[in-house]
Design goal:
Elements (H helix, E strand, L loop, with lengths): L35 E7 L2 E9 L5 E7 L5 E2 L4 E5 L2 E6 L4 E7 L5 E8 L2 E8 L13 E3 L2 E7 L6 E10 L9 E9 L9 E5 L7 H4 L4 H6 L5 E4 L20 H5 L5 H12 L9 H15 L4 E6 L1 H13 L3 E7 L12 H18 L1 H6 L3 H14 L2 E7 L2 E7 L1 H11 L3 H15 L4 H15 L4 H11 L6 H8 L7 H12 L19 E6 L7 H9 L4 E6 L9 H13 L22
Helix pairs in contact: 5-6, 9-11, 10-12, 11-12
Length: 590
């Protein structure tokens, strides 16, 4: 479940609209000292703000995203009033409000887009970071130093906890696990919040600092981010299994077997690839908890991180105060065997939603027939599409397996769901550029945040062993995706070392710890059925269904539900989900 398999929220993706020329908007007069270039980063995306003045002294703004081909972000208004900068970008549903620092050397504020709000600080090009406000301290037995996340917008305390790579033998190589603590802003709670990243292969330190529920929970309790062994800053398994500049490989999620063998041999020179499994990591996690001195913790997982959370609950349940799961991947769920039916359900529901919406139905009256016709065509012969990679145009081949499998990660994103009927209709007409561009952009973005080597170590140790031909037929027969991705992973795992999962790994996890389970009705990878089955064995559980939700649906409503659940350690009011609605489907006219 490559991340694809973690949670790729819109809150971590900057969506921009290409325009043919720079767009400048004028507003009221402002001091000349703020004019010029200001640079900032949201997650891994750089933004360049160029503030200027007209001869009449009025403010102008040109905003570009260098990491998205120097795309120009359409700006509707810009104002500087009372020491604050206000920017509105209606085309992408975003705004930015920031205060000029006392020294006049930075803008410190918040980027809001859709339901997501993210901190964003702007500096002059080449300017040094502002001084840390946190001081070095030791929590438990772990010395921590001030640090910032990659984009520089959030400050915390960082350190490492050392564990044995082979926890059973306790000899040989040791691993330094990277830990980031976001100290409670007000304090009061003795327990700490431990969010666990998806993937497998995603960094918790890159994923969670800016989420809405992290910010809310941090008011009263520490938030502890731990990069899983083999990811992020925790002895990462570093070998590029595929060339992310190769559009064909990325779109088809293809790992060339020759390259896979080279990576296996390269990594094996320093790492024992059988030691990078979920069960081993949760023991690492408990070492971190103990070293920091927390007796009880609030465990929260998204996507594959829910499996980590459940296994931690089984192995170290006495230390769990609350359990939160979003997009449930239980130990019984097999990656990628379960993809086919979950994706089938998501696509069918989206088509049904279009048929039930007047504007969508009128614009695409034959959507289901067109989708089915595309599958038949691709069974007979692959399609071709041109995409832009860097500064050049490339032609890619789209087989049926590539077409359907690339839809799955794309449909994690509500904005792509809105565009689904348009993509299918254009492809039916022979224009594959819309589909190919969206699918490639999503896959490329995911490849930048997922460690595929760790993905293989987990999947080849926990999901592929014991998978029979009968199981494959039962789970994939008659589905749009079929056994395409299962066969991919079966081939990969023949070449990758397999660790051993405990004998009880697939057993249900029973507990009376307060639990919250969140599922999206349109989720293309984890189904409500998995969530409900898991909840039956968690006797103090509450299941929340997001009728218009997908895989990890970022919203202020969900943020509030998670934060209130952790605070109360019990059932919470989820009625705000009734107001969570997808924006209308895009029509051809739009």
């Amino acid at each position: 479940m490559n991340r694809r398999w973690g949670v790729l929220r819109l809150s971590t993706a900057l969506v921009v609209t290409m325009v043919p020329a720079a767009m400048m908007v004028t507003a009221q007069t402002a001091p000349a000292s703020i004019t010029g270039e200001w640079d900032g980063t949201i997650n891994k995306l750089r933004l360049v703000f160029v503030l200027g003045q007209t001869p009449e002294g009025r403010l102008t703004l040109t905003l570009t995203s260098p990491d998205q081909g120097n795309a120009v972000v359409p700006v509707d208004s810009v104002a500087f009033d009372g020491g604050k900068l206000h920017v509105e970008m209606k085309a992408i549903g975003a705004s930015y409000v920031a205060a000029l620092s006392a020294a006049g050397d930075s803008f410190v504020g918040t980027w809001a887009q859709g339901a997501a709000t993210l901190p964003l600080t702007l500096h002059r090009p080449g300017a040094q970071s502002v001084a840390f406000t946190l001081k070095p301290r030791t929590i438990g037995t772990v010395p921590l130093e001030p640090c910032r996340i990659m984009d520089g917008n959030i400050e915390g305390l960082c350190g490492t906890v050392t564990v044995w790579e082979n926890r059973t033998l306790k000899r040989g190589r040791k691993l330094a696990l990277k830990v980031m603590v976001l100290p409670a802003l007000q304090g009061g709670a003795s327990d700490a919040f431990f969010p666990l990243a998806g993937g497998p292969g995603q960094s918790a330190i890159e994923t969670y600092p800016a989420t809405g529920y992290t910010n809310a929970i941090r008011r009263d309790r520490d938030v502890v981010l731990v990069d899983q062994r083999g990811t992020g800053g925790s002895a990462p398994l570093k070998c590029e299994l595929r060339d992310i500049t190769n559009a064909q490989q990325v779109l088809g999620e293809e790992i060339p077997l020759g390259r896979l063998r080279v990576c296996r041999e390269q990594l094996a020179q320093t790492a024992d690839l059988t030691q990078y499994t979920t069960s081993i990591f949760v023991d690492d996690l408990d070492d971190v908890r103990a070293a920091l001195g927390y007796e009880k913790i609030d465990v929260f997982g998204t996507s594959y991180g829910t499996r980590v959370a459940l296994v931690y609950l089984r192995q170290h349940g006495s230390h769990v105060r609350t359990l939160g799961l979003e997009g449930v991947v239980s130990p019984q769920y097999r990656i990628p065997l379960s993809f086919s039916r979950s994706l089938q359900s998501s696509i069918d529901h989206i088509i049904e939603r279009c048929e039930a919406a007047t504007a969508c139905r009128q614009s695409y009256p034959e959507l289901r027939k067109e989708f089915d016709a595309l599958l038949v065509r691709l069974d007979n012969a692959p399609a071709k599409a041109e995409v832009t990679v860097g500064q050049s145009r490339k032609t890619i081949t789209i087989s049926k397996g590539v077409f359907v499998s690339a839809l799955r990660p794309a449909l994690y994103m509500p904005e792509v769901i809105r565009a689904f009927p348009l993509m299918i209709h254009k492809a039916y007409e022979g224009n594959w550029s819309v589909y190919a561009s969206v699918a490639l952009q999503v896959r490329t973005a995911i490849d930048k945040v997922i460690n595929r080597d760790l993905t293989l170590s987990v999947v080849c140790s926990e999901d592929i062993p014991g998978m029979t031909e009968a199981m494959i037929r039962n789970e994939t027969a008659g589905t749009y995706l079929g056994d395409y991705q299962v066969r991919q992973y079966l081939n990969y795992c023949k070449e990758w070392p397999q660790g051993r999962a405990p004998k009880n790994f697939r057993a249900a996890v029973h507990s009376d710890v307060p639990a919250l389970l969140i599922s999206g009705a349109l989720d293309p990878v984890t189904s409500l059925a998995v969530s409900r089955t898991t909840a039956r064995d968690l006797v103090k559980s509450q299941t929340v269904l997001l009728n218009d939700g997908t895989h990890g649906t970022g919203s202020s409503c969900v943020d509030g539900i998670v934060a209130n659940f952790v605070a109360a350690a019990g059932k919470v009011d989820a009625s705000c989900t009734d107001d969570m609605k997808l924006r209308p489907f895009l029509t051809e006219a739009q």
